[in-house]
Write a sequence for this structure.
């Protein structure tokens, strides 16, 4: 049973400008593990990574119906990668399906949260 779906799109240039103005955005949006992955990337790929993770976390919060704020923060959500490269979010009560895409101008993400029947 589908618990919720979420979709988000972000302009990569906006994230790039935000990163220049407020470098602390990295620590606000990315978990420690995600920050380590971020630091291993080249400059252009870093912006795409940050924008993609931002979009996924926004989409995840929308799928839960609460948004980022009092109930859920960026730090509560960690995007992992399967050996196949597929992104996912671990959750004890739900199966979380994640899709991220990038173009030159945008990063977009869709999240589907499915009940496990437990």
């Amino acid at each position: 049973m589908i618990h919720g779906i979420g979709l988000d799109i972000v302009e990569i240039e906006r994230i790039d400008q935000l990163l220049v103005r407020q470098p602390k955005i990295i620590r606000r949006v990315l978990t420690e593990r995600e920050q380590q992955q971020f630091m291993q990337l080249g400059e252009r790929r870093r912006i795409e990574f940050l924008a993609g993770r931002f979009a996924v976390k926004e989409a995840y919060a929308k799928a839960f119906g609460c948004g980022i704020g009092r109930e859920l923060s960026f730090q509560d959500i960690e995007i992992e990668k399967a050996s196949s490269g597929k992104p996912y979010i671990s959750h004890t009560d739900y199966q979380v399906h994640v899709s991220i895409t990038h173009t030159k101008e945008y990063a977009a993400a869709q999240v589907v949260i499915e009940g496990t029947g437990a």
